[in-house]
Write a structure and sequence with these properties.
The complex is a heterodimer of chains A (652) and B (72).
Chain A (H helix, E strand, L loop, with lengths): L1 H16 L16 H20 L12 H6 L9 H7 L10 H14 L3 H27 L2 H13 L4 H5 L4 H22 L4 H18 L6 H11 L6 H5 L2 H20 L11 H20 L8 E2 L10 H21 L3 H14 L11 E3 L4 H22 L7 H26 L3 H11 L4 H13 L3 H14 L4 H13 L3 H14 L4 H13 L3 H14 L4 H13 L3 H14 L4 H13 L3 H14 L4 H18 L3 H8 L10
Antiparallel strand pairs in A: 1-2
Chain B lengths: L4 H16 L4 H13 L3 H13 L6 H11 L2
Helix pairs in contact in B: 1-2, 2-3, 3-4
Classes of the chains: A mainly alpha (652), B mainly alpha (72).
Chain lengths: 652, 72
């Protein structure tokens, strides 16, 4: 599949190797006119992107952020003015990105929870972004090599897979698309002879959309400054004042982002990194992204800190800042006149510096999605170096050019194949976390997430060792304990389950679900008195959770507190009319009171909700039978027959 | 003449239950009650035995009564 792409790609390379436009020398006589080559690049971008990413279209959702964004997110299901309005007034998982949520809501409206639609949209957005990148690069440089490099690398680089093949990565493809459209607008604003103000407006609107897709777009004014530099616009007061509207937007959204992060717990509290250490971690990250750009091996979806964040750092860590200083020196010494290199490097640096954990967010040291826009700078440098090698290095000898081209070709093929393979890793939660475990065998959360997924697949025996491993590796976290409890519950080991839920609650006393689970386990063991306080606590923490009212209602029913039971079950039904248990339970209560018609109505509702629930048929059938038996006064005989067997499970 | 409509509705539900969960002792037991109501003692006895074989505790007195009524 990579073949097609390389055929296409070969075209611009060959063109360039002959006439070699450089940047300013007018080409002697190009093999192909630029327009044709550009069309070839566009075709190559779309074709290679589509072919390489094809496997992602059959991917599922994962259990990594997708539940919070899509599968369990109620906010995206309300496709009304109110619902959309709500998206613009709320945070999702510690982010304010309403346009991203709007795109997901639109997909939910069309395709509900079919993953195909979401993946297709992500891929189309990625391709549109790649095309915008290509257009932008061409406008800026008028250099086919750089344009081809930026367009194609943006399309096929494996570090971009996370943003495209992971539905929760939607924010990246979306904000990048608007980001580059805004830069295109800015370019025309700088160069157009008239209508500048229109282009400026376009730039601002696209910038706003980008910010509304992902807050990290705040770096755009810096990118505009770099365009000024690249276009050699004279630095006047005006070139600063014209950026003020952008800066205002940046500041507003910077503040919103910080507030949003604080609303969740993603600004890490469990591991505060000492400021001194942060410099070294940031240096490491800065270089790690560059290394992964050249050789994207061992990619994974979560990169934990290589050492404990507040440990004493070993000598090797001190090398990273030194490397960066040397790098800066080399660029200053040898390349400061090369505006391609300076532009590319500063573009990369300005986009990545907010993301290299100087401000620690989350517990990962690097993340592939952070490379999505910032890598543009590195692609730019690569293209420029290639272009220069083809034109300006006669000293390398005649054989050098084909060799360099061949190396580039092999590298492109390697990237394409790698990307194609990575799409398969994002297939579902199991492939994702098994891959992560292979690469980060000490990462507790990988086992925890895999175990959790296997649990939902009802593969309890497989899930058990993964969760145990997660607990063993630590740090202690409530999730795996709670999940273990769930497994024991399914296996009917209520006493073991209760122990796990208790541990989970010790670690996270604010988890309503675990109170509910623990209460339910105690109830199942007949410890009704012990169970009640847990149900109460759960209802106190989360008064809108139907299930806990059901459980408490059933508890009251078992204790014979009919009125309390009715009140809880009615509440449960009003909160969650799609759950059969409160109907079942209330039906049994009615039956016990001899209100067979009301009971029948509840059992009918239960069967309507879930026509495959055996217990609902049992109860409805029993209700009909027993009411008739009582009518016909057969009950006397039956009760006489049955009174010796108190163990018979008669709901009456 | 006995109006069997409600019993039949009940039996339908138990049939559905046993289709979904063929090993439900309680299902057989309850269906047995339905047959008992319809005075179909043969089937009531059969289902009571089934219920027992799937581990549901059936009162021996009930079984005894059915055995007599079904004439087996």
């Amino acid at each position: 599949m990579a073949k097609k792409k390389n055929l296409k790609k070969a075209a611009p390379v060959e063109t360039l190797s002959r006439p070699m436009p450089g940047k300013k020398n007018k080409p002697v006589k190009p093999l192909l006119p630029s327009k044709t080559v550009l069309i070839l690049i566009f075709t190559a971008v779309v074709l290679s992107g589509f072919i390489i990413y094809l496997p992602s279209l059959s991917n599922e959702f994962t259990n990594w952020d997708d539940p919070g964004y899509i599968t369990e997110n109620q906010d995206i299901r309300d496709w009304s003015v109110n619902g959309i309005n709500h998206l613009f007034h709320s945070y999702t998982k510690g982010n304010y990105h309403p346009i991203t949520m709007l795109s997901l809501a639109a997909e939910y409206h069309v395709a509900a929870l079919k993953p195909y639609m979401y993946h297709l949209d992500s891929l189309l957005l990625h391709l549109l972004t790649c095309l915008s990148v290509t257009v932008f690069t061409w406008l800026l440089t008028r250099n086919l090599a750089i344009t081809a490099f930026c367009g194609l690398l943006f399309t096929i680089h494996p570090m971009h897979v996370e943003s495209v093949a992971w539905v929760s990565g939607r924010k990246d493809v979306l904000y990048a698309l608007f980001y580059f459209l805004s830069l295109i607008g800015y370019y025309y604003y700088c160069t157009a002879k008239k209508n500048n103000i229109l282009f400026y407006g376009l730039c601002l609107i696209m910038f706003l959309l980008s910010l509304l897709s992902k807050g990290i777009a705040v770096t755009l004014p810096l990118s505009c400054l770099l365009i000024d530099y690249y276009l050699k616009r004279p630095l006047k007061i005006r070139s600063l004042t014209e950026k003020i509207p952008m800066l205002i937007l940046s500041i507003i959204f910077g503040i919103i982002s910080i507030k949003a992060q604080q609303s969740s717990d993603s600004i890490s509290t469990d591991q505060m990194v000492p400021i001194f250490n942060r410099i070294f971690f940031a240096s490491y990250a800065f270089l790690a992204y560059i290394a992964k750009f050249i050789l994207p091996a061992d990619l994974c979806n979560f990169y934990p800190y290589p050492v404990k964040p507040n440990d004493q750092l070993t000598a090797i860590w001190y090398i990273y800042p030194i490397i960066i200083v040397s790098l800066l020196f080399v660029i200053y010494r040898f390349a400061r006149k090369n505006k391609d290199v300076v532009f590319g490097f500063l573009f990369y640096a300005s986009c990545i510096f907010l993301l290299i954990q100087l401000l620690p967010v989350g517990t990962a040291i690097i993340a592939e999605r952070y490379s999505y826009i910032s890598y543009f700078g590195l692609f730019f440098i690569a293209g420029s170096l290639y272009s220069n090698a083809m034109s300006g290095l006669p000293s390398l000898g005649k054989s050098a050019k084909p060799v360099i081209s061949l190396i580039v070709l092999v590298w492109f093929i390697y990237l394409g194949i790698n990307t194609n393979t990575r799409c398969g890793v994002w297939k579902d939660s199991e492939t994702l976390w098994r891959d992560e475990i292979k690469k980060q065998p000490e990462l507790s959360r990988a086992y925890a997430n895999l175990g959790s997924f296997l649990f939902f697949q009802e593969k309890y025996d497989e899930a058990l060792p993964e969760l145990t491993k997660a607990i063993e590796l630590g740090p202690p976290s409530a999730g795996p304990y709670s999940q273990l409890g769930n497994i024991y519950e399914k296996q009917g080991k209520y006493d073991l389950a209760a122990i796990e839920f208790k541990k989970a609650l010790e670690l996270n006393p604010k988890a309503p679900v675990d109170y509910n689970n623990l209460g339910f386990m105690l109830q199942q063991q007949g410890k009704l008195d012990e169970a009640l306080p847990y149900f109460n606590k759960q209802i106190e923490l989360n008064p809108n959770f139907g299930k806990s009212y059901t459980n408490r209602g059933e508890l009251y029913r078992m204790e014979g507190k009919t009125e309390l039971a009715f009140s809880d079950l009615n509440k449960a039904i009003s909160l969650d009319s799609n759950s059969i248990r409160p109907y079942e339970s209330r039906g049994i209560l009615y039956m016990a009171q001899g209100k067979y018609d009301k009971a029948a109505a509840d059992f009918d509702s239960a069967i309507k909700i879930d026509p495959k629930a055996p217990e609902a048929y049992n109860d409805r059938g029993y209700n009909k039978t027993i009411s008739e038996i009582i009518m016909k006064r057969l009950l006397l005989i039956i009760t006489r027959l049955l009174k010796y067997s108190p163990n018979l499970q008669m709901p009456i | 003449m006995i109006n069997n409509k409600k019993y039949d509705q009940g039996l339908n539900d138990f049939n559905e239950l046993l289709r979904l969960n063929p090993r439900s002792g309680q299902g057989y037991y309850n269906r047995s009650l339905g047959y008992f109501g319809k005075k179909d003692y043969d089937n009531a006895f059969k289902d009571a035995l089934h219920a027992q074989s799937y581990g549901f505790q059936v009162n021996p007195a009930y079984l005894q009564q059915l055995k007599q009524l079904s004439g087996k």
